[in-house]
Structures are given as structure tokens and as C-alpha cells.
Amino acid sequence: MKIELQNVLPDEIEKRSFELISMELKEKGIVLPKENELVIKRAIHTSADFDYTENLVFSEHAVQKAMEAIRNGACIVTDTQMAKAGINKKILAKYGGEVLCFMSDEDVAIQAKKHGTTRATASIDKAITYQKPLIFAIGNAPTALVRLYELISEQKIKPQLIIGVPVGFVNVVESKELILQTDIPYIVARGRKGGSNIAAAICNAILYQMGDRDF
Amino acid sequence: MKIELQNVLPDEIEKRSFELISMELKEKGIVLPKENELVIKRAIHTSADFDYTENLVFSEHAVQKAMEAIRNGACIVTDTQMAKAGINKKILAKYGGEVLCFMSDEDVAIQAKKHGTTRATASIDKAITYQKPLIFAIGNAPTALVRLYELISEQKIKPQLIIGVPVGFVNVVESKELILQTDIPYIVARGRKGGSNIAAAICNAILYQMGDRDF
Questions:
Q1: Model ipTM value
Q2: Do A169 and B45 touch (CB under 8 A)?
Q3: Among A75, B11, B32, B83, which residue's Cβ finds the most Cβ atoms within 10 Å?
């Protein structure tokens, strides 16, 4: 079988991908809300999974609020090194923010063992000691979302935004629903789907809008 | 709405997830080939996407060949820092291997610019200068697979295994089909789906089988 490759310049590949996603959405008759459009498209771009048109839910003006928080120097806390690796740190640094992940920290491992929790839970407890505005990008551990919910209920933390997109089978669906019950701005992938790649993609979609890209 | 969380011990979450995946496969009447089972289940675990039961294809005894290569000190080359971050480097190091990613290297950027290629292409060209047995875990860039195909055809490289799971819309489907035409052992996600998370998950499924886990 002869395989024909499309001739697309290196710098054009991502743009062309977004054009193909836009065309396919049009064919499916899907019109995305303007302010959430680039986030949803980038989630599709990173997964080739059009389910994200349906399962991503946004609190009111979540994307704008996230951009405002970043302009004010917010840091992004992730629950995996993978998500941290995937986020564009250059644009974030321009505004004084950085990406934090405490999952491999020794003190987090010790606290988790001591309290019989996951390291993700302990890493949220570590995050609240930070004095900066925080955006949480949770792509893996539902226990991180559960702990955030508890700390929000106890008024011990008030994140700028929660990106709640853990993937999986145990308490994943439920932990996301908990976040929807808070008054904190959120972007949540309802259901089982999500992942560190989706968490990073959502962060990047927000950051790129603050840079010079229109996709 | 009252949300009920399942009470699962931190150490048991992943195991429980795999049990739920197994149950759901059984309900769907899907029986996986024994030697590929843990790879397919881990791809589902990392994506909550059961499409991977259908789109993952394996050359003959690919998983066994990968384990043998790792036992002989093979290194894993990734095309993203995300995939590198997600791979369990501890088990690999036990056998003398490491995870390599050249994507952020300055010389790779220079070569890519000079030749008008993607950095992924240039990073494959850099990889062939390595004198160790190599496993390629490509979760992002179809151009990396295309370059591997060219170098294999020119007999300039003979990887131990190619994990070909880039995700996306431009030349993704085609680049994977190219790899299927080689005589190199492969694990490929046919179609558009895949990603750095899937690439890392497949590597980990292989590595965990060499450790003390049975899931």
C-alpha cells in the first residue's frame, strides 16, 4: 500500500490541525461558545477525542478569570510531573508565575504516609501554605480534588481556578461533581475522561490566548 | 445532590481501577490476548478510553522483545518531555537504561532550522548517534515516525521497538501505517488517537511487568 503524506511546513502543522478540528466540528454541526472555544479545541487537539465538546464544563467566564489571575502572577499547581512538563512555562513566567508540583517532594511522601492519604492529598495541603494566588490543574488524582473541596468548604483556601480533569475509574466522576458544587471558578471534564495531557492542554490554551497565538 | 465517595485505600486505588477495567471488558465481551493485556489495560487506565482495545496493534511478541531489550540495557527515546516525565525511570535504571528526550536540546533546534524540519525529525537524527539499543516511544510527532521509517529503510537504524502512538490530525494516521510496513517490532495505536500519556503508559506497562506488579 502506498502511503501519501501531506506536505505541511513544520511551523504550520499545529495551525493546520486546528483548522481540521474546526472543519470537523462544523461538519458535526457543533458551535462552541466563543470564550471557551480554544480550550475545548486544544483538549481535542491533544487527545483526538471529540467527547471533550460535551464533557468540558466551565463556570461563568472561567477562562477570562484564569487570564486575569495569571496577569496578577498566579502560579499553577499540578498533581503530576507530566502535567508540569507539558505546560508552557515561558508565557507564565512573563507574568511572574511558575508551575509547581509537590508530588515528588520528600515531605509530601512523609505526610501522606503519616496520615494514610495519597501523596496528591498531601501535596494539596502543602500548596495551601503558598502565599501566591493559585490555579490548580488536576489531571490525575481525584483525591486532590476531594481535598481541595474539603479545604474550600473549611474556607482554608480560595483558588483562582480549578482545572478538574482527573482520568479514571475510582472516585473520578464523583470528585469532579464535588468541585461543581463550590463557588470557585472551574473548568471540569465531567465523567471519567481527562488526564495530565488534558490538564496541560487547558493551561496552554489559556496561556496561548495571552500570547500572540489565535489557536 | 449528595455525592458518595468510595472508600479505597491510597495503595489500592490503581489496583481497584484495573479491576474495574477488567470487569468492564468482561461485560463488553472483550477478551484481550494475554501477552498484550497489561499494555492495553494501562492505555485504557490512562485515558478512560476503551477505543484502545481496538486501535492498539502489536507485532509478534512485541512486549517480550521489549522486555528483553530493556534487560539488555536499552534506553527509551521520547519525543516530548511529558512522556519522559511520565515513564518510570527507576525500573529502567535497574537494567542500565535511561529515558532520553532531545526535543529541548539546542543543537536539535539548530539542525531543525537549518534543514527546515521539525525538531522531532532532528531529534531522531540525534538519537541514531547513540551507541545503545533503543526503544522509541513516540506520542506526539508523526514526523518522528516518518524519519524513523526513512532511517530504517536506509538501514541506518534498527530500533528494538517502536511505540508509535502520536495523536492528531496531520499525517498521524499515515505515519503509523508506515511503521507497520517495517520489520521492526512495534506497538502502534492505529488512527488518530494516542498521546504522550499513552506512550508513557505503554512503557510503564512493560516496565511494571518486569518489576513486582501484576497490573
A1: 0.94
A2: yes
A3: B83
